[in-house]
Fold this sequence. Notes:
about 5% strand, 3-stranded antiparallel beta sheet, flat
Amino acid sequence: MLGPLEAWHDHTAVPLGDQQQRFILVVLLLHANKPVSPERITEIVWQGNPDRRSLVRSYIKRLRTAFEPTDAEIETTATGYVLRVDEDQIDTVRFDRLRGEAALAQQDNDQRRAIDLLREAVALWRGRFLDDIDIDRVGGAEVFVPTESYHDALGDLAELELVTGDHRSARDRMRRATRTSPDHQKYAELLMRALIAGGDGAGALRVFDTASGALAESGIEPGTVLRNLAERARRGEPASSLPSRPGAFTGRSDELDKIAAAAAGSDERRAVWISGPPGVGKSDLAVEAAHRLRDRFPDGQLLVRLNGFTPNVAPMSVSDALSQLLTDLGVPAEQIPDTVGRKATVYQSRLYGTKTLVVLDNAASPEQIRPLLPETRECFAVVTSRKMGEPDISDHVRLAPMPAGDASALFQRLTNGSSRVRGRSADVAGLVKRCGYMPVSITVAAALLRKHDRWSLDYLIGQLDDTGAWREDGAAIHASYRQLDAHQQQVFRLFGHLPGPDVDIVGAAALIGTDIAVTRKLLHDLHEVCLLEEVAPERYQMLDSIKEFAALEPPSAGALERLLDFYLVTLADAVNVAYPFDRAALPSVERESPRSLRFALEDEAMAWIIAERDNLMAAIKQADSDRAWLLASLIWRHFNTANRIDDWIDAVSSVRPDGDYGRAHVLYRLSIANDRRGRHTEALDLAGQALACWTRLGDVAGEAAALCAIGISEMQLGPHDEAMRHVEAALAKYEQCGDVRGQGHALSLLGYLNEQHGRYEVAVAQQEAAVRFLRESGHRQGLAHVLNNLGANQQHLGMLEEAILHHLEAHEIAVELDDLCVAAYALTNIADAHRLAGRFPEAVHHHDLAARAAAGLADAELRGSLLRDRAATEKDRGRPGAALLLYQELLDVATGTGNRTHESYGQIGAARTLHALGRHAEAVAHWEMAEAVYRELDQPEAEEVRRERAELTCACGQR
């Protein structure tokens, strides 16, 4: 029945008679081994024609004759006719049985058998179900049509073929399937995955385009999975941040089997937690397991080191971990949201529909990793920690020291079967026992023997025995340390106190106080005996279990200060080059470092900041107060531009500058950060404290910056006359010190304030002057903001086409700078211009583009602007219900941030929209609040609202 109706016996077709006879046969097949009365057969086949009952008997007789040579027979019983047949001879029944057996095979992790069973199942299909039978003549809606089951089986089979690496079979199978069902998203997903696995990214994109077109005909957008696959096809290789497989990995077969079983299972806990003492090999086991599971998780394998127990390094925050994972998944830095919640949302959406493995190494606690665990059942996480995991999170693998036999085998492998070891199994057993059966210690001991080719095994054992009071599993590390010369020992100890997870060759030279060549030799020597790991070319880290030993003694005097000065002086130069427009606002750095780097190109400077970001943030927390506030102030611009405000605030939470100069710089930047987060009251207080510091110092440029920050917060909170006064004072001070960028910034703020009070010609002149200053200063990001402000004022004056040109230029600059915040402002302003021109389709299109650009950005001011502009468009194009919802959402944002300007837009918008909907009683409170807020802001709209209400005869006009 899985195709045209056919019956076969001994490779010969059984004649089934005319169409009426075939209808009756199908009815009997659908009720195989169950009686069906003649009346019921008549009702099904000849609906409404009971007189045809007499034909049933003759057709049954013919079918009996046709089945005589076969095992099937039709019996007559008291309740009707029964087709007696081995159900496995019916292809629909056999299909269901094969699918069920395949599901059981998958539960047993027997993927090969599941594939064989599903291949047999889908091969039963020769076309559409009962292709030559009118379904209405054999039961109609009562007949179960197994087409969806076929789609499921076909998809399950291709999925298994992909998991086992047979992407060509999956490709060919899905290519045929998509030809017949081009709008079947699951088929398109599987074909794209197969093509990507085969290296045909272009082919995968063609499949995406075809599926998108087919779906568009039904008014459907491609789903998240399809979009993610298309992005992966454009990006090339699947995301992977796994290190290479551990060399000479030995044993742990039971643990690997348990991890593989958990990854293959259907348990809701899509993770496994590996715990154990330091040096037991948790990270190596996780990495080895991840490599073995690559075929099961072909869409990506990510690893993030959480520093839960790394000496002298704070555990990685959830925010930073999400940022790293999003970066590894291909999300551009400027598109990574600022808040943990939004980062987590983007992270989970990126994982949705993929088969991605995430290794969370060295977790501090379950709380640290919960937001990092994939939610989709197709993904899996491997967690390592010294602590036990929670049972609701994951399966658990407790890692003990290696079994004696495996520990000996590991040592044998690491020494390459040296003649000094062969035939000495008892002595090797004693050696690995002295190492506590711990892989890290065994690795160090083997490295010692490899390096000293004149040492005998007995001599090495003697060195391990001579370790004083060191604990047993640290004997090898101590013995290796004792073989280092004084200079090497000093470097070893310094790495125990290293701020941050790693250090490059230049930073290490600064730390040690030697030149590059000597440093390279020292690090190579430590790497040779497995006391250091090279995580990237000329970038080194020390394993946590070794770092604990290295940190037992204090570092040599001045070493950490040399490294901190290297970071500080190099960062100052990098920021100067990467953000040239910000030079006047940067603190002066009077320290020196002979190893500091100098940059000629912006890209080089930015690359260094990104590469060292984690080390710089760790340095802030470990440095003395003077160095800490300088590092925090210098790196501020990078975090502000990348929309990582919360991460910066967290890093500087413990910074306490000693003097006014340092306090002023930190307080000023904290003010800007809090304003961007919508915390305007806190921002105003911080800016006021910064101004007091600058005033005591007599720093005119600093006073100007703080006055502008005060004006910005006052602008949001309400007292516009005070905001105007402070910004005008800032402009005078910027003119006094000749800061053209500052003058442009202050003029633009004045233009915005004048715009709020309806003085549009004055505002346009100020914004045009600001454009000239910012073009001169080279501050492209600031220029884009001012072009947006200029265009907004031109809209008020009816200069719509001129406004659009300025907004387009702002958008071009934003795209060039990868600044999604400025891009979103430009797009919503373009939408507003089209609204005013009555071009609603163009307005809605640009609103959608603006929302897409702003997705994930934690900027309260931007969100309020987008809601305000979209609400106005919905109202003007005759959708007051949609507009009201947007105005109410705008009021929620304004309430949360205290932004009085947004509140005024929300109140008057809600009042007018409720009035238009005839909900006058509800509108009254909004009319009154709108007038009150406008009056508090001293804006002319207060009088306009009063006059507008006076002309209304409904409840809205009653006072």
